[in-house]
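BUG: 3D viewer hangs when loading the predicted structure for this chain

Environment: internal workstation, default settings.
Expected: structure renders.
Actual: progress bar stalls at 90%.

Input used:
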Amino acid sequence: MDRPAVSHEDVADDLPAYALDALAPKERACVAAHLASCARCREELHRLEETLGALGTAAPQVDPPPALREQLIASLDGVGDAPVHSVISSRWVRPAMAIAAVLLLGLAGSLALLAHDLAGVRGDLAAMQGQQATVSAVLADSSQPIRLATDSAPQAYGMLYLGSQPRQAVLVVKQLPPTQPGRLYQIWLVQQNGARVSGGTFTTDAGGNATVMLNAPAPVMQYQSLGITEEPAPHGSASPTGKRVAGCALAH
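C-alpha cells produced before the viewer hung:
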C-alpha cells in the first residue's frame, strides 16, 4: 500500500501486519491515519491485539540463536529480485500471518484442553484401580458371605461379601433382568427405624452380572437389611420408587 489515502478494505487487509509491526514505515503511517477516523477498524485492531497478546503468553519465551536472523534474511533475499522488506510486507503474507497466529492460538488451547482431559483420565484410572484392589481384598478375606433373596427375579442370585472394615462390603449379582434405557439398579440400606439410605447405583452387563462396592454411610451390619430396586438414571432416587428386585437381612 503505497498511496496517500487508503480505503477501508485496504486497511482491513493490512491490520494483521500492522498489529504485528510488519509494515513498512510509509504503509504503517497510512494505516494509522485511517485508524484515527475509523472506529470499526480500531475495534478490529483491538480484537487482533487481544488474540496476539493471548498467543504471546501461551508458551515460554525463548531467544533464537544469533545466526537465525542472518539465515532467514539470506534465504529471503533469494526470492526473485525483491528486497527483504518487500517480501515480508507483500499482500498475501499479511493475511497468512494473521491466520497462522489464530491457528497457533487454537493449537495452544487444544493442547491445554488435552492435558486437562488426560489428567482427568489418569485420576479416574487411579480411582478405578484403587477400588478394584479393595474389591479383590474384600472378596479374598470375606469368610461369611450373605446370600441375597431374589424377590421379583427368580432366575437371579447374588451374595454380599463383608470386608474387614465395618463399612466395607461388596455385592455380587448374577442374571438380574436387564434394565430399560434410562434406568439403573439402586442399593438401599434399611435402618432400624425403617428409613432407607442409598448404598450406591449400578448397571449390569449383557448377562445381568455386576460386582459393586457398597457406599455405606455407616457400618454395614448396623443396618437392618439391604434391598435393590430399579430407579431412574443417571443418579437414582432419593427414596425407593421401584419394586424390590432382591435383598437380604443384615442385623443379627
